[in-house]
Design brief:
Radius of gyration: 21 Å
InterPro entries: CFP-6_PH
Order of helices and strands: EHHEEEEEEH
Keywords: Membrane, Transmembrane, Transmembrane helix
Number of helices: 3
Domain Low molecular weight protein antigen 6 PH: 68-138
Pfam families: bPH_6
Number of domains: 2
Largest sheet: 4 strands, antiparallel
Helix content: 40-55%
Transmembrane segments: 21-44, 50-67
CATH architecture of the largest domain: Roll
Strand content: 15-25%
Number of strands: 7
CATH topology of the largest domain: PH-domain like
Structural class: alpha+beta
CATH class of the largest domain: Mainly Beta
Shape: elongated
Strand order of the largest sheet: 1-2-3-4
């Protein structure tokens, strides 16, 4: 077990490494197989071969997007990169970091009353790693909120 009381040094990047590896290796394998099949099938016209390669590239591109999620914490806050979006949050905006049993990924409860999914920490293939990453991000958010004058709304309101 790691020491949960001390947050990790900044900057730190959280990402589902095993899931990412599976997606990237799988995408490359699919691209190679489909392209090879297109080149080996002699009865295909040049246009059909091109369409095979284009389809393989499209599939690989989708898998690249699925491998994109990460959460980057630095001195200025947290940048959440999901499949098709990127959002930077100040530390004071993050009220709570949640990864409950059964959650597909971490959810960040924000000061504006919304919740932001952070797909960069997900328990899919590596559950224990996701739990450790969620605890580390929680420790960072709590340490930064305490140190900031405009931290949590429920703390010492003059």
């Amino acid at each position: 077990m790691s020491d949960n009381s001390a947050p990790p040094a900044l900057p730190v990047t959280f990402r589902p490494s095993r899931t990412r590896a599976v997606l990237l290796i799988g995408g490359a394998a699919i691209f190679v197989v489909i392209t090879t099949v297109a080149l080996l099938l002699e009865q295909l016209s040049p246009g059909e071969r091109t369409s095979f390669v284009f389809t393989a590239a499209l599939l690989f591109g989708v898998l690249l997007l699925l491998a994109r999620p990460k959460v980057v914490a630095d001195e200025t806050g947290v940048t959440v990169v999901n499949i098709a979006s990127r959002r930077h949050l100040e530390w004071a905006e993050i009220l709570q970091v949640n990864l409950r049993p059964g959650d597909p990924w971490v959810f960040l409860n924000l000061s504006d009353g919304t919740s932001l999914p952070a797909l960069g920490i997900q328990p899919g293939i590596a559950k224990q790693r996701a739990i450790e990453d969620a605890r580390a991000l929680r420790a960072l958010a709590e340490a930064r909120a305490i140190g900031e004058p405009h931290g949590r709304r429920d703390e010492h309101q003059g």
